[in-house]
Each structure stands twice: as structure tokens, then as C-alpha cells.
Design a protein that fits this description.
With 125 residues, the chain is an all-alpha fold. 69% of the residues lie in helices and 0% in strands. It has one domain (21-29, 43-121). It is built from five helices and no strands.
Length: 125
């Protein structure tokens, strides 16, 4: 996988661009909705990349918001655990079979949903 040489946005730059929670949740529904049709190989690749991007954008936001809370606050601990799980899932490689690739994308989708929940619970709009 290619490595990006662009720098991550600063806190000030992130404050100017609100997260697209609706868009992120719509991406996850494509994989997690009851009775959803399995995506084609091309769709799956696009969805997986999109979900990875959602995680890359959301983690710093949730991390910053959780960091404003006391360390002994339950919301802080839960958000940090979610961030750790999302980062771990980002490091994993999908399997080589379509079912394994779908399962990988579904795990990413669950992380996106959880990060969106934390973002909203921590006061994000």
C-alpha cells in the first residue's frame, strides 16, 4: 500500500471542517444493513478504502475530544479503547477470498460506527 507524504491537518484546520457523520454512517450501512447484498469486488475495494479514510479522519477528532476529559472519565476510557481497536483494524490486511475481504470491511465499518458514536457523545455535531 502506498504511503502518503501529506501532513495531517492541524487542530485548527480540523475545527474548520466538520466530520460528515451522515456520509460515514451511509458507507457502513452498505455492509452492515440487514439483508444487504454483498458488494461486487470493485465496490468492496472502494468501500474498504472509503472506510479506511473515514477512520483516518475520525480518529484524531475523537482523540482530541476525549483528551479534553479527565483520564478517569468513562467516556475518555471508552473512546480511547475504540481508537485503539480502530487503529488495530487499520493494520490488518484483508484475506484473499471474497468472504474474508467482506468480513474485513465489515470490521472497519463497525469501527467507523463506533467512532461516530463517540464523536457525537463527546459533543461533535
Amino acid at each position: 500500500m502506498a504511503t502518503s507524504t501529506t501532513r495531517p491537518p492541524t487542530g485548527e484546520e480540523r475545527d474548520q471542517r466538520p466530520l460528515g457523520i451522515r456520509t460515514m454512517r451511509a458507507s457502513t450501512r452498505r455492509l452492515l444493513a440487514e439483508g444487504a447484498e454483498p458488494p461486487t469486488a470493485d465496490e468492496l475495494e472502494t468501500l474498504t478504502l472509503r472506510l479506511r479514510g473515514h477512520i483516518m479522519v475520525t480518529v484524531p477528532e475523537v482523540e482530541e475530544m476525549a483528551g479534553r476529559l479527565p483520564r478517569n472519565d468513562t467516556r475518555h476510557a471508552c473512546a480511547r479503547a475504540c481508537i485503539g481497536e480502530a487503529r488495530m483494524r487499520m493494520r490488518l490486511e484483508p484475506g484473499t477470498t471474497p468472504p474474508a475481504q467482506i468480513a474485513h470491511a465489515q470490521r472497519l465499518a463497525r469501527s467507523v460506527n463506533a467512532l461516530c458514536d463517540h464523536y457525537e457523545n463527546l459533543g461533535g455535531s
